[in-house]
């Protein structure tokens, strides 16, 4: 326990004692109450808490990744978000000038075959307005550009005639210029990769990237990326968000979902293979469950890297041929099984194996130690779940006997009807129900697979934007997990992050939020109370016990 944690826990306790004191004074006026608390601390009832008990669950939801932990500042960098049919919506890109001076439309002329859409910009003015005409990107609700910091621009351009482009970081109204550079594009029929470093001479948290010119003619753009230079270990993660995660000391990282893994339809599910290799060549995809586009710069490789950077065991949740609305029949599941085996070779294979070599080429010759996989997400009730599950289970067991496999079916109240090393247990509910669920695992059979409580939270009005009531209920629930930690091996709160601009699709609120306000694009880390203060749930629960339960138990 570090000094910072001790002090925040101490402050928290002092505050609580102060509140309790006030409450006691107040209640003494009404009536005096007595409570007896029996604590059984005998060694016989002690259970060792597994090393793996507390970890994190990262889902691409609420812009947790795109516009969140992934530091890319340009939104829709490849112009693919509007779909493959052109002209397409280029949102949030927009033009500088008007349609009599600049004509902008997507076409299918990219040099990248898997993301073929590019942007064609035709400058129509002979005598363009001062400052020029062009395009701009506001990022994810504004780019946080900071004084003295460097930003790496990469873009692909093509222009039949030699032309000068001015690339700038400006305030959202374009009036404040924070960094600027001029790029000369030599006239050619080929695409050219441009790389430039921009150093900001001022701060504006809602900045934009703009590309302008004064010269009449046509220029194509594609894969326009702007990354801050100081990402965590140069791995592309926002440093201040990573440090919040490091403070949690997570023992595992479950990724990348959640429903994000399933998709509303299979065609929109997360595909690991499309999310690896050079970022420029990744097609990106529309996550139809949480309704936004990701360019998949934060892909399968980056998730594995994130786990390594956090010192957490990676838990890869893969699609098992099931989405919310369609399913692959077990008779036709073989290619999906092979796809998952390839993903495991990508992670664990030697640098000279087929997929291990792709990983090595991306900069990580050493394997990533994937020891856990989850076969689907929340799919137990689906017709073909067991059929598909067994196909994946048997193939993985054979190829990687040490990998622990997680079933979607709840084994807490009755034995599973299929083999598994662990089973998922998810709960989102009101505070009273979760509070009462502290005894859920008391009577669970000790002989079956272990529980992975991989998503839990108090939600809706009890959670709001964080509440002590919800925190207490979650702490009480966690005491039940600690008490039964001989059969509960892992637990993670959900969701982990929410972008303040995209709360609409989630009903849950975390119980304690740490706001990372260094951007116009504000991210909040959602953690349950005891995790934030690094005290045991039992301790938090004990401290809070006398102040709140009346509300809960009532
Ligand atoms: C940032 O830009 C906005 C206009 O988009 C302006 O109102 C604001 O004052 C600027 N902030 C700073 C710190 O200069
Ligand atoms: C910052 O840099 C921009 C672009 O080079 C320039 O236009 C602006 O005057 C500079 N601002 C300050 C305060 O130096
Ligand atoms: C365009 O690229 C092709 C293939 O890389 C090359 O052969 C050709 O010389 C290039 N043309 C120009 C004008 O640079």
UniProtKB/TrEMBL annotation:
Ranges of residues in domain Alpha-L-arabinofuranosidase C-terminal:
454-552
A Pfam family assignment: Alpha-L-AF_C
Report the InterPro entries cross-referenced here.
Alpha-L-AF_C, ASD1_cat, Galactose-bd-like_sf, GH, Glycosyl_Hydrolase_51
Name used for this protein in its record = non-reducing end alpha-L-arabinofuranosidase
Q: Name one GO molecular function term.
A: alpha-L-arabinofuranosidase activity
Coiled-coil blocks = none
> Which top EC class is given?
hydrolase
Q: Which UniProt keywords apply?
A: Extracellular matrix, Glycoprotein, Hydrolase, Secreted, Signal
Gene Ontology terms: biological process: L-arabinose metabolic process
**Family designation:** Belongs to the glycosyl hydrolase 51 family.
Location in the cell reads: Secreted, Extracellular space, Extracellular matrix
In terms of SMART domains, this protein maps to: Alpha-L-AF_C
